[in-house]
Specification:
This protein is mainly beta. The chain is 8% helix and 38% strand. Strands 5, 6, 7, 8 and 9 form a 5-stranded antiparallel beta sheet that branches. Strands 1-2-3-4 form a 4-stranded antiparallel beta sheet, with no helix packed on it. The longest helix has 21 residues.
């Protein structure tokens, strides 16, 4: 009996050791492709792109930091655009590789099992993680609703901007309600939304805060920060100061 317990203990230690082996984190000097980690001062995160393209329209990083997804496009409106990705494997970063042609604006679900995308006509898609990679993207909304920057929180809520190029109205940040085959926009209201255009945005996974871009006075966009109160209402968005936002007509995101 004593020998049996000893053997079981050895096996248990081997199993635990194997978990640690496969769950080893990325070395600190290799995080973020070996570039300077995020801090209080904004700096450019250099991402390789195809000639004539630029990296833009969201970036998505897995919870363990081992996968980085980003979009590249040639111009607006885009005629060439795709999702590219890096993966940390075998003790080094591998990539970038093309993941999805004809899609942009990647955003991972809180558990990294689904990636949300959009095409050039502002239709939302999703792809599921498989043992062999990712599934073919499919439309998330069967209706012909156009959305921008769809994302899902840890509370299983979907949020979108109603902005799209060619719209007759400015974009608003909305909660996406999908019930019994119907999909509707639930406007988050004032003061989060305003008479200005709210388009690109990011909501925290726990829905505690939201960062949104606004385009004042016909210029380019600045970023604003709003917090959710205990009553579920959003605070009046405050413009982020320098060095996040800068003077003049600059895109800050």
């Amino acid at each position: 009996m004593k020998k049996l317990l000893q053997h079981l203990l050895v096996i248990l230690m081997m199993v635990i050791s194997s978990f640690k082996l496969f769950a080893q984190p990325i070395p600190e000097d290799s995080l973020y492709l070996g570039q300077i980690p995020p801090g209080n001062i904004p700096i450019v995160f250099n991402l390789p792109v195809t000639a004539g393209h630029r990296a833009c329209e969201r970036i998505a990083i897995t919870s363990d930091g081992k996968e980085i997804y980003y979009g590249e496009l040639n111009t607006y409106p885009a005629s060439s655009y795709r999702i590219k990705y890096f993966k940390y494997q075998d003790n080094r970063w591998q990539g970038p590789e093309n993941l999805f042609e004809g899609f942009m604006a990647p955003k991972l679900s809180p558990d990294d099992s689904i990636i949300y995308l959009q095409d050039n006509t502002f239709h939302a898609y999703y792809s599921k993680r498989l043992s062999t990679g990712w599934s073919v993207p499919v439309r998330l909304i069967s209706q012909n609703l156009k959305t921008h920057y769809l994302q899902k929180s840890e509370m299983d809520n979907f949020y979108v901007s109603s902005y799209y190029e060619g719209s007759t109205s400015d974009g608003e940040i909305c909660k996406l309600i999908m019930e019994n085959g119907d999909t509707v926009f639930q406007n988050l209201g004032r003061p989060l939304n305003s008479s200005l255009q709210e388009n690109d945005f990011l909501i925290a996974a726990d829905e505690s805060y939201l960062i949104v871009s606004r385009t004042p006075n016909g210029g380019t966009a600045d970023m604003y920060l709003s917090f959710k109160n205990e009553n579920g209402k959003w605070t009046n968005p405050k413009k982020l100061e320098e060095p996040i936002n800068t003077p003049g007509f600059n895109w800050e995101y």
